[in-house]
Amino acid sequence: MRRITSSNTAKGVAAIVGVGPQLGLSIARKFAHEGYTVAILARDLGRLSRFADEIAREEKAQVFAIRIDCSDYRSVREAFEGVLSLGFVEVLVYNAYYQPVSSHPTTFTDIKIDSFEKSLAVSSLGAFLCAQQGGSPRVGWGAMAKRSRRGPNLDDNGP
């Protein structure tokens, strides 16, 4: 976990899983701007650290870069040990997905089973594991959003 600190925040932790250069980064920046301590999680810690530096500098916020492989239970557990050490996870945004590397479009019949299984593991199992590990210890508190092709799905069970 890489810590970037600029100021104290009054709100809880916003954990953004699956932070890349577009949507995830924008979401993290917005929560930092709103005063949350932000944990950004993805596989590439080097890139995450650059994002954390950028957000912390621009928003004067606390931003933590944490490596995670959403398809691996141990990685999710270890990542959320770091997230939970920051405080109560008030917001969890799951934005992770797996896209196999391909130089040309693939037809449905050409999709490899291992690629399909990895995609399922990241999109379904990963969301479950992150919600389970980062979930609120108090029932009826917190929110989780999952990005999908139909847009965000927000489950808000605030007090």
UniProtKB/TrEMBL annotation:
<dbReference type="InterPro" id="IPR002347">
    <property type="entry name" value="SDR_fam"/>
</dbReference>
<protein>
    <submittedName>
        <fullName>Uncharacterized protein</fullName>
    </submittedName>
</protein>
<dbReference type="InterPro" id="IPR036291">
    <property type="entry name" value="NAD(P)-bd_dom_sf"/>
</dbReference>
<dbReference type="Pfam" id="PF00106">
    <property type="entry name" value="adh_short"/>
</dbReference>
